[in-house]
């Protein structure tokens, strides 16, 4: 793909430039961040917010591991322990992983399609500023009279009907977070469909844009479903309805159906943009085009479509009919096909390429390995007879942490190292980046792989106490989790902050094999880019 900067009608260019000057004048100081509408600034706000929430959720995770270091109750009562478990999940899913991917979308989608900004710049600002109040409500719920909700991040009744005021705060926070996601998704879809540079047809779009386009449709489809579920919870709690209250004729299992109809597409919302990042990084460091571009697009769409018909594989233990179990089991196994196409295409891209292993490529290859482990354990969990045996054990905890921590998080790290030179104008320290990678890879596996054995041996999740035979594995896992957490503190203070403050000057195209419009603008990317759309050949 090549671009001719400045191509387009002069009259149109003048109008765009004039409008940009009028509506998007470069603000300074605190106004730049509070009122700013520039997609790069808002992308940075999303990334900083997600990093803060990632550290907050990480502290809660270390509290959990601290309690589990030895059997019997050491530091926290079970109620507070379950508050930590619940808020760790909510903060990591809605406060860390999702906003991080939206931050990347804000930064990179306009740069990759040759747009001057996001389609709805002011709405973009508003969608971000819904997040901090939601985060404050989640964290403040710990300090209410009843404490934070302790019903698990899935908020299952009847537990969620019995919680104190912290549950209501969580419901309102989820509404704000969902509204933010819906507005962000509308913005991304409109930007991609209407603001691509001349000559950039849909099947010429960068894979990151494709994965985000499909993810945005998923968000619009399922976030209202979550809002419906938590609103029904709220009315059950305070307005006398009995949607989920069995004593009044309601059905608690109905909540699970509604929640997981949101929850399983949500799993792919948290990984599909990562697939897009990996689809840029592996070709760049293999010095080859992505193998099977069209099949990657179709596989992404297939995963998104299939995600709507597999929700009840989370519910095999609820006593559903055998035919329903078979349907959800086989449809879940079917998801492995387009996912396998992606893994095959990434490996085929590397095959006989001129590979080099700078930090972005290390994280991309690490992602391939750990995500495949998480995917294979997911295939086992999709089999109803196995799932019923290991349901709600640490085997499930191991599986989804391999997908989300070792999967989504590694993709985010790979994307950061790949595009940070374009953001900051400085090259990060390569030795420090590799130190971060190897420590992350080692400690993430030592943290979560032993959990498979804990689950197979019968250790249930969300328990603050456990039998003595699980002691050694829990102690080992707790130490590894602490080391993984310290590695991410190292990432913040020794890589991110120094990279913002200075370092070797980054070229416009710091990676030899990188392709795309984002590499045609200087590093750092100027405040206003593509006032005149480039022409893509």
From TrEMBL:
Gene3D superfamilies: Cytochrome c oxidase-like, subunit I domain (1.20.210.10)
Any Gene Ontology CC annotation: respiratory chain complex IV
Endpoints of the signal sequence: none
Matches recorded under SUPFAM superfamilies: Cytochrome c oxidase subunit I-like
All copies of domain Cytochrome oxidase subunit I profile, residue ranges: 24-537
UniProt-annotated location(s): Cell membrane; Membrane
Catalyzed reaction equations: 4 Fe(II)-[cytochrome c] + O2 + 8 H(+)(in) = 4 Fe(III)-[cytochrome c] + 2 H2O + 4 H(+)(out)
Major localization listed first in the record, in broad terms: membrane
Its membrane topology: Multi-pass membrane protein
Transmembrane parts of this sequence: 45-64, 84-107, 128-149, 169-195, 207-234, 254-278, 290-312, 324-348, 360-384, 396-419, 440-459, 479-500
Protein keywords: Cell membrane, Copper, Electron transport, Heme, Iron, Membrane, Metal-binding, Respiratory chain, Translocase, Transmembrane, Transmembrane helix, Transport
Pathway(s) annotated for this protein in UniProt: Energy metabolism; oxidative phosphorylation
Annotated coiled-coil segments of the chain: none
NCBIfam families: CtaD_CoxA
Family: Belongs to the heme-copper respiratory oxidase family.
Job description of the protein: Cytochrome c oxidase is the component of the respiratory chain that catalyzes the reduction of oxygen to water. Subunits 1-3 form the functional core of the enzyme complex. CO I is the catalytic subunit of the enzyme. Electrons originating in cytochrome c are transferred via the copper A center of subunit 2 and heme A of subunit 1 to the bimetallic center formed by heme A3 and copper B.
Protein name as catalogued: Cytochrome c oxidase subunit 1
Protein source organism: Massilia psychrophila
Gene name, Swiss-Prot/TrEMBL: ctaD
């Amino acid at each position: 793909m090549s671009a001719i900067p400045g191509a387009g009608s002069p009259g149109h260019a003048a109008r765009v430039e004039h409008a940009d000057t009028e509506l998007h004048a470069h603000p300074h100081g605190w106004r730049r961040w509070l009122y700013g509408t520039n997609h790069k600034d808002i992308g940075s706000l999303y990334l900083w917010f997600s990093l803060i929430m990632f550290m907050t959720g990480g502290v809660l995770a270390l509290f959990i591991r601290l309690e589990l270091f030895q059997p019997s109750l050491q530091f926290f009562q079970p109620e507070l322990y379950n508050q930590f478990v619940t808020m760790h999940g909510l903060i990591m899913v809605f406060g860390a992983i999702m906003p991080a991917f939206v931050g990347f979308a804000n930064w990179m989608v306009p740069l990759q399609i040759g747009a001057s900004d996001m389609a709805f710049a002011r709405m973009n600002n508003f969608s971000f500023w819904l997040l901090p109040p939601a985060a404050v409500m989640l964290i403040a719920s710990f300090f209410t009279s009843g404490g934070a909700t302790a019903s698990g991040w899935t908020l299952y009744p009847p537990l969620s009907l019995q919680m104190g005021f912290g549950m209501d705060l969580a419901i309102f926070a989820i509404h704000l977070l969902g509204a933010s996601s819906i507005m962000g998704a509308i913005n991304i879809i409109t930007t991609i469909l209407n603001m691509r540079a001349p000559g950039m047809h849909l099947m010429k779009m960068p894979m990151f844009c494709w994965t985000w386009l499909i993810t945005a449709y998923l968000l619009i489809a399922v976030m209202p479903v979550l809002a419906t579920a938590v609103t029904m919870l709220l009315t059950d709690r305070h307005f006398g309805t009995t949607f989920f209250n069995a004593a009044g004729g309601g059905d608690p299992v109905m909540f699970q159906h509604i929640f997981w109809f949101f929850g399983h597409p949500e799993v792919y919302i948290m990984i599909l943009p990562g697939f897009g990042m990996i689809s840029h990084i592996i070709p760049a460091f293999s010095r080859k085009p992505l193998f099977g571009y069209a099949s990657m697009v179709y596989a992404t769409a297939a995963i998104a479509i299939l995600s709507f018909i597999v929700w009840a594989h989370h519910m095999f233990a609820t006593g559903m009919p055998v035919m329903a179990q078979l349907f959800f089991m086989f449809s879940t196994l079917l998801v492995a096909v387009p996912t396998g196409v992606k893994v095959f295409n990434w490996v085929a891209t590397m095959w006989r390429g001129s590979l080099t292993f700078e930090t972005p490529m290390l994280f991309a290859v690490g992602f391939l390995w750990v995500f495949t482990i998480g995917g294979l354990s997911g295939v086992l969990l999709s089999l109803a007879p196995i799932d019923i045996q290991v349901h709600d054990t640490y085997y499930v905890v191991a599986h989804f942490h391999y997908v989300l921590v070792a999967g989504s998080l590694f993709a985010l790290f790979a994307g950061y190292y790949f595009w940070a030179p374009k953001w900051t104008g400085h090259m990060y320290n390569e030795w420090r980046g590799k130190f971060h990678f190897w420590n992350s890879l080692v400690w993430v596996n030592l943290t979560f792989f032993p959990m498979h054995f804990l689950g197979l041996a019968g250790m249930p999740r969300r328990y603050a106490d456990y039998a003595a035979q699980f002691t050694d594995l829990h102690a080992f896992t707790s130490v590894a989790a602490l080391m993984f957490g310290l590695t991410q503190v190292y990432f913040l203070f020794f890589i991110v902050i120094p990279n913002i403050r200075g370092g070797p000057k980054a070229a416009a195209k710091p990676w030899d094999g990188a392709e795309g419009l984002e590499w045609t603008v200087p590093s750092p990317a100027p405040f206003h880019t593509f006032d005149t759309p480039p022409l893509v050949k």
